[in-house]
Amino acid sequence: MNLALHILRQVANAVGLLIAVLVLNFCLIHAAPGDPALVIAGEMGGASADVIAALRVKYGLDKSLLEQLFTYLGSVATGDFGYSYYFNAPVTGLIAQRIPATLYLVLSALAISVVIGTLLGVVSARKPNGLFSQGVTIISLAGYAAPVFWTGLMLLLLFGSVWPILPVTGMTDVARPKVGFAHVVDILQHLVLPATTLALVFIAQYSRLARVNMIDALTADYVRTARAKGLPEFIVIGKHALRNTLIPIVTVAGLQFGHLFAGAVLVETVFSWPGMGRLVFESILRRDYPTLLAVLFFSAVLVMAANIITDLVYRLVDPRIRSGAR
Amino acid sequence: MPPVLSVKDLSVSMNGTKGMVPVLEHLSFDVAQGKTMALVGESGCGKSMTALAIMQLLPEDFRVTSGSILLDGVEVLSASPKELRSLRGDKMSMIFQEPMTALNPLYTVGDQIGEVLRQHRGLSRRDAHAQAIQFLKAVQIPAADKRVDAYPHQLSGGMRQRVMIAMALACKPKLLIADEPTTALDVTVQAQIFDLLSELQDDTDTAIVLITHDLGAVAELADDVAVLYAGRCIEQGTAHEVIARARHPYTRGLMACVPHLQLGRMSNHASAELDEIPGMVPPLGARGPDCAFLPRCAFAGAICRAQPQPPLDRIDAGAAVSCWRHQEITP
Amino acid sequence: MTTIESTAIKPDKTALPVSAAASPTMAALRQFARSPAGVVGAVVLLFLMLATLFGPSIYGVDPLDIAGAPFTPPDADTWLGTDYLGRDILAGLLQGGRATLTVGGVAAIITIVIGVTIGSLAGFFGGPIDTALTKITEFFQILPPLLFAMVLVTLFGQTLTTVTIAIGVVSWPSAARLTRAEFLRLRNLDFVKASRAAGAGNGHLILLVVLPNALPPIIVSATLAIGVAILFEGGLSFLGLGDPNTMSWGLMLGQNRNYVLNAWWTVAFPGAAIFIAVLAISLIGDGVNDAINPRLRKRG
Q1: What is the spatial distance between Cα C14 and Cα C11, in angstroms, rounded to a whole number?
Q2: Which residue among B85, B94, B102 places its CB closest to the CB of A222?
Q3: 3 state SS of C272
Q4: With contact defined as beta carbons under 8 Å apart, do A45 and A55 qualify?
């Protein structure tokens, strides 16, 4: 299939699903107990009677539900996700401000977990019953079972009081603002703990996945062929077996982007990382529904984008998909 | 001239839950330059293990317990991993039964052929690619300059096996091991692959170890034959002699399964028709000192039950057999 | 036999199929008992359940009472210390485990019921029904589950029931995909065709013919769903979205998290409790998996 056409189709599908998310948001506002106008204003937003009246007019709350839906979709289409009375700012702007921090966190956690997880899995697959392999199995079980917010708190305890070598809160050193390269280093230092915490969960899963698939790949006929050709072990493993091992990891990593994002909400709360997750926590605390629902929508956008990218990477790695053979 | 491959007293065991279990016992054979040695027998008789032992690619639980394998005068069994790597793909190479799975699905066939040349001949990526096209032409793949960039799944089974052959012969090895190279292919394609192998052998003078249960192929291609049963060689000799005057009841049984052999036609599914020999190969670990074929043998007599399996008995220059009653049986 | 087949020797065509054990359930249980990880997990989980069931009355300290000064470190009186209000941590753990484990179990049941229903209908009927249900599943998959649960609980109120239902409602897509795949595989097999030819209705076919054969992977995923649900409950409570009137491990964590640097025990123990429970459940999951997928056992 033509690649451009394929991407186009994917994007169309994504747009459909995202409209469905908006409809869901609309339904949630109306299904929630209480006056929709109050829900939109946010219970603790301190909205005045005037504001409520203005909201009723803006969203046509006295008209039929269907009309209200189109009014809502119409305002969203212009980029208007409502107004946060708690933050006293349009929601869209709030989120746009927070997206970069979340992306730094999520993408670095993704990179760390895929690289380290694959590495651990591949090395442990060389001797599936060896000591190292058993160690990896234990780490992966533990990493999966440890609640990410707890791991975060324990690391915060370790590096906050026992062994204070890393910053444990925020994204930059507020007391001593830096510029240029020093600023980047500052952010990276602050990123280490949150990204590691978030990555641990996924390292656990990817190392397990990599191990199983690597063991499979090592018994595959094509690996035997590669050995029969006299290729050195690092090519047999690093080229022939590894690429086949990476395919399921790419797939799972893409599928789990939503989990990664949800994990970021918890990790950002633990480390006061100023991203969308922290915004979620604050809006939950203040019952700031417009912000909360908009975050849900934008996280769905990120997940969709991740799915499309995964699909493209998949095509890049596996020629069988490219020509539609499977 | 010394043989290209000389296997002496080779035994392989599997390290199972019940200790070491013999898989292959005391196999000896030589293959000279340009000649073909066929290893024949049902599944589970140790043919593939022999091949993998020569390549030193035995699965993890399998060990060579005795014997010697000389390739062009070099002892394979005591070679270091590095020496082995320089032998594999260069001096000796192997083609496998399943061309579907033996090629890596994620790389082009050109890359996989070129890899051998880059490894052993130090060719650049570009030269290796150009050479790969030449080899694809040599194995009679049409439109080779396009197919070189194809992925395995885009080729038919027969084509893939041709690619495997091209890959195996890329460095002009002294020895080629072909492990049931046609079993997974259509009947018409089987004949083409065998023809190709014998043509290429005429060109390159490669010694071939052909593993097969297709006696038709043996009659056509092989110079010598060793018939294996339950890990033991029970009959060995020149292909002509063994086909014409099979002495062991098992070999005779195999022959009976190929009704049109004398007419030179090939059986399509020799394995399916092998059911005509009642029973099955005894499983690993259930093989005692007495003749392994005894429970299935129509000619078994008192002496067979009283004595352990006899060693291969050389009858004349062209034949040896391991059977107490071969003189009575052979017409 | 199996060890040999997996290597280069081809399985003998004439070999008889391995005869099935008398009772698959018993055979699976026996297999499970042979998996050390599974047994350890089962023992630990049983211990936790008994502790939360009988622990509060044996220990005899009310988890909501002030048992000492705030932030008393672990000592002879308060074994695991006290929290920011001076409440006994151990008493909280024993009491709170009930809510956490119950939410985990019930939410997992909801997850599996929704997932299996949607997955089996999609896989069994195929066609437009499959397309529609798959679209719905896909829709739920693009919403980050924990975030979606947060929105639901925020909107519909912080009660244990809402939390449980919210977790169930957001977690079912993977169970649905799994069930659908199993049904797609099974529905065209001969024994299903035979039942259909014998006049069995769709309901009979789905529930009594196909579903029992699809159960093994579903059971494994149900086990793991309990662990995920416990983690979700913890996450929600941690963000202050749990039921404030019901003691749970997540609630303890959430309420004390700001004091982690001053009083590590207020946070370390509740988190460790969640960790141990989820670990035990995933060990059980592994054991169950080994028991019903003997083929994979050797690979580990």
Answers
A1: 9
A2: B102
A3: helix
A4: no
Per-domain residue ranges for chain C? Answer: 45-67+89-296
DSSP, res A236: I
φ, ψ (nearest 5 deg) of residue B246: -65, 135
Supply B322's token pair. 């391991």
Joined tokens for residue B61 = 């639980």
Q: A218-236: string of b/e by CB count within 10 Å (b at 16+)?
A: bebbbbbbbbbbbbeeebb
**Residue A314: CA count within 13 A, CB half-sphere:** 20
Residue with tokens 């590691």: A196
Return the H-helix or E-strand segment holding B177.
strand B175-179
Contact at 8 Å (CB) between A279 and A298?
Answer: no
Examine the predicted complex and report whether its ipTM is higher than 0.90. Answer: no
Helix or strand holding residue B225 (H, E): strand B224-229
Q: Indicate if the pLDDT at residue A85 is higher than 80.
A: no
CATH 2.60.120.20 fits C45-67+89-296, yes or no: no
- Distance, in angstroms, between A258 CA and closest chain C CA? 4
Residues B166/B192, Cβ–Cβ less than 8 Å: no
Q: Which of C151, C152, C39, C48 is nearest to C99 (CA)?
A: C48
Helical residues (DSSP H) of chain A, grouped into ranges = 3-31, 36-41, 49-58, 65-77, 91-126, 131-145, 148-157, 180-218, 221-228, 233-235, 242-255, 257-271, 276-285, 289-317, 319-322
Task: Write out chain B residues lying below 8 Å of A225, CB-based.
Answer: 96, 102-104, 164, 167
CB contact at 8 A, A277 and A102: yes
- Domain locations along chain B: 1-91+173-259+274-331, 101-172
Interface residues of chain B, partner chain A, Cβ below 8 Å: 55, 57, 84-90, 93-94, 96, 98, 101-108, 115-116, 119-120, 151, 153-154, 164, 167
Q: Which CATH architecture describes the domain B1-91+173-259+274-331?
A: 3-Layer(aba) Sandwich (3.40)
The Cα–Cα gap between C246 and C226 comes to 19
Q: Is the pLDDT of residue A152 over 80?
A: yes
Is residue C189 a contact partner of residue C125, using CB atoms and an 8 Å limit? no
Structure token pair of residue A4? 């451009």
Task: Please tell me the distance from the alpha carbon of residue C13 to that of residue B179, in angstroms, as a whole number.
Answer: 18
Residues of chain A neighbouring B90 (CB-CB closer than 8 A): 230
> B17: which chain C residues are within 8 Å (Cβ-Cβ)?
3
- Check CB contact of A129 with chain B, cutoff 8 Å: no
Q: Are A156 and C260 in contact (CB under 8 A)?
A: yes
Helix axes of A180-218 and A91-126: crossing angle, nearest 10 degrees: 40
The domain A94-322 is placed in CATH, from the list 1.10.3720.10, 3.10.20.30, 1.25.40.10, 3.30.70.2470, at 1.10.3720.10
Residues A62 and A47: their CA atoms lie apart, in Å, by 19
- Domain range list for chain A: 25-80, 94-322
* pLDDT at residue number C297: 42
The Cα A135–Cα A120 span in angstroms is: 10
Shortest distance, CA A68 to any CA of chain B (angstroms): 52
Contact B15, B63 (CB under 8 A): yes
The pLDDT tens digits of the residues spanning A7-38 come to: 898 889 899 999 899 889 888 877 877 777 77
pTM, 2 dp: 0.81
Residues 6+ away with beta carbon under 8 Å from B82: none
Match 């604050």 to its residue by tokens. Answer: A282
Q: Is beta strand B319-321 parallel, antiparallel or unpaired with respect to B313-316?
A: antiparallel
The band of A281, judged by pLDDT with boundaries at 50, 70 and 90, is confident
DSSP single-letter state for residue B91? T
| Number of other residues whose CB lies within 10 A of the CB of residue A18 | 19
Q: Does pLDDT of C125 surpass 50?
A: yes
CA proximity to A143, closest of A171, A169, A165, A121: A121
